[in-house]
């Protein structure tokens, strides 16, 4: 059975070009880049070059503003805890209700340790309200942590605008953005549109580098304390011997994302739109989460009324289709995702959420396969639902009222 991989927001396949760029540092060039002898110099050069590549990718920032880390989670933890430790006088954090746990969890931890955290709500489409954001800023606001695009829905936040507003309100407020889902997909111009952003994080494995490498941009002069303490690597701001092959791989992945960006994006968008239209046409009572908001071109998050997303995934899996749901199985009960809850997805649909996220290796055949299988899966699950009338392929009247919230 062939695999149709539609979970590129979870991770991506390592590109052959990336693998090739890493190879030498696993074998002949295994040396520690900090060693003084000549033989270690290719490893040190690889890191230097990678830093140049990533600095260019981020809009031509300074090389010293780029730190290599192990993943976006580390970058985000470093930025948030590092900012708090360096600025004890400021005790307020602004974030959103829909951040990835790598920010959300840290913010909740900061709240437990006595900081005041504002979690900004989103509307039904997943958008933030600018007025609410402005009202949230306070004289003691330390940092604003707002993701660039949401991993579950693909909804893009106006980080450029939010950062400008924060700086105009008070230049000392730090702005952190989680660009894990946008690196390689949207421009990250930290000298242009994103010039008011102080800290930006992303992970290699979302753009065809391996898992286990990430980056953190720290604008020069940003007061943060190091998180990893030890050797002098990364200018003393992130200790630990550098992961040379993975850093070389990250640089190659970043180049690759730029080389054929327009063509790859156009194809991904076409396939995503085809899937979206096709599923809406074929499946009654289906919602596209984030519809109406600016969205990443690769992400499609849908909620199918009256069935469980887990059931859909299970059956898609039996047909070789890899996707993910918006639910997290906690203590035996299926908790709907905090993102969809914040968007107030109706309760008849929130459990039936599925995320399809495309990538550079998806094909027309993949989309055709999904459009063939998905409606059959939904129909078979709905036959088991007490709310569905299979004879007429529509909800029973009482269920229709529940759907409308009446
Ligand atoms: N932020 C976002 C938006 C993500 O989607 C992810 C991963 O799914 C992360 C942070 C964490 O990335 P990593 O697991 O590579 O640390």
Structural account:
The chain is α/β, with parallel strands linked by helices and 406 residues long. The chain has 2 domains: 4-10 and 261-404, Aspartate Aminotransferase, domain 1; 16-259, Aspartate Aminotransferase, domain 2. 39% of the residues lie in helices and 16% in strands. The protein contains 13 helices and 17 strands. It has helices spanning 16-26, 41-57, 72-86, 101-112, 130-136, 159-169, 244-259, 261-282, 309-318, 338-342, 347-350, 364-382, 397-404, and strands spanning 4-5, 66-69, 92-96, 116-120, 141-145, 174-178, 199-203, 214-218, 286-288, 299-304, 321-322, 324-325, 327-330, 333-336, 353-357, 388-389, 394-395. The strands form 5 sheets. Strands 2-8-7-6-5-3-4 form a 7-stranded mixed β-sheet, sandwiched between helices. Strands 9-10-15-12 form a 4-stranded antiparallel β-sheet. The protein has a two-stranded parallel ribbon with strand order 1-11. Helix 8 (261-282) runs parallel beside helix 12. The longest helix has 22 residues, at 261-282. It is globular. The two termini are 45 Å apart. Bound molecules: pyridoxal-5'-phosphate. Pyridoxal-5'-phosphate binds next to helix 3.
């Amino acid at each position: 059975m062939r695999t149709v991989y539609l979970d590129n927001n979870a991770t991506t396949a390592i590109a052959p070009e990336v693998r090739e760029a890493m190879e030498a540092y696993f074998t002949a060039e295994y040396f520690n880049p900090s060693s003084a002898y000549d033989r270690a110099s290719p490893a040190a050069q690889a890191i230097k070059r990678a830093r140049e590549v990533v600095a260019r990718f981020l809009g031509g920032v300074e090389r010293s503003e780029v730190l290599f880390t192990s993943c976006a989670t580390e970058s985000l933890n470093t930025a948030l805890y590092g900012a708090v430790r360096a600025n004890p006088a400021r005790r307020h954090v602004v974030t959103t209700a829909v951040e990835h746990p790598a920010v959300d969890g840290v913010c909740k931890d900061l709240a437990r340790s006595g900081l005041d955290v504002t979690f900004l709500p989103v509307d039904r489409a997943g958008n933030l309200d600018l007025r609410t954001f402005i009202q949230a800023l306070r004289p003691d606001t330390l940092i604003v942590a707002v993701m660039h695009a949401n991993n579950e829905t693909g909804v893009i936040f106006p980080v450029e605008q939010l950062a400008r507003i924060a700086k105009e309100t008070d230049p000392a407020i730090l702005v952190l953005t989680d660009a894990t889902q946008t690196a390689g997909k949207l421009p990250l111009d930290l000298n242009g549109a994103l010039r008011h952003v102080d800290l930006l994080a992303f992970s290699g494995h979302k753009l065809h580098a391996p898992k286990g490498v990430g980056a953190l941009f720290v604008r020069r002069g940003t007061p943060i304390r190091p998180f990893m303490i030890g050797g002098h690597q990364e200018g003393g701001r992130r200790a630990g011997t550098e992961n040379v092959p993975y850093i070389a791989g990250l640089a190659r992945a970043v180049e690759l994302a730029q080389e054929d960006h327009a063509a790859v994006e156009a194809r991904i968008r076409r396939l995503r739109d085809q899937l979206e239209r096709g599923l809406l046409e074929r499946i009654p009572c289906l919602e596209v989460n984030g519809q109406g908001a600016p969205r990443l071109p690769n992400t499609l998050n849908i909620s199918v009324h009256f069935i469980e997303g887990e059931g859909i995934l299970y059956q898609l899996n039996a047909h070789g289709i890899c996707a993910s749901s918006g639910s997290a199985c906690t203590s035996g009960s299926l908790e709907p995702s905090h993102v969809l809850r914040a968007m107030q997805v109706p309760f008849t649909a929130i459990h039936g959420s599925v995320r399809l996220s495309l990538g550079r290796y998806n094909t027309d055949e993949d989309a055709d396969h999904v459009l063939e299988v998905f409606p059959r899966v939904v129909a078979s699950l709905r036959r088991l639902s007490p709310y569905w009338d299979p004879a007429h392929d529509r909800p029973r009247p009482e269920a229709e009222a529940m759907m409308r919230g009446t």
